[in-house]
Amino acid sequence: MLRTDPTAAQLSSRDRQIIEHVVRDRISTNEVIQRRFFDSTHASNVTRTTARLCDGGWLASFPLIYPTKYFVPGKRTASAYGLPVARTYPLGPQSLPTEYALLEYTTASSDQTKRVGFDEVQRVAPWYRVEWTMAPHCLRIDDKAATLEFIRVDLGGPPDHVARKCCRDIAARNAAPEFAAFVAKRSFSVVLITGSTGKAAAIQSALDQHHWPAGLTFRLAVFVSLIPLLPRSL
After folding, report:
1. What is the pTM of this model?
2. CA distances (Å), 128 to each of 109, 124, 144, 186, in order?
3. Which terminal Cβ of the chain has fewer Cβ within 10 Å, N or C?
């Protein structure tokens, strides 16, 4: 919810949509903003808009992969939306690929998938613990059914390391008695994002070596644009 800010009246409806997108998704780029909010307009219109929002303190920009930059909430947005000031800082070597992978995933999924926080998670799973939402989650709407997606981004570790992390994640959630029924209804899934089809196949093979609760589904998403941001090569 946008708090009172005398300068907010100067924002257009599209300005607000862009700001709220960056608040929800934590990161964006000119390319993603163009796809979501500008349709077929010239790219210069997009860069002028984001530059203006940066000048106004609504967005902050940092280098991604030259010459591309990424945007996070600016200090004025942090104040207006009650965000911690740390959200306005540049992302670290692990958080940057993680947040960028989430951005790619939600953008590729169009309107079917959105990133969600604890309050939104609790609407579909009131028993879900707040500490579990420290990791990113999405809500996917497909054929009017809602699926809560737990997202794990492969940062270049061995495939079995990824699978074992998933084991720990699921074991923690199994402590909640409601989880088994939730999974059995196909209301929960795990999404693993990586940078190559070869790594995705290796992760799937590693997952197949473990036992999972009945009804639990895994989805693997591949975005090659993630590779240059990873601390280790895939």
Report:
1. 0.91
2. 24, 9, 22, 16
3. N
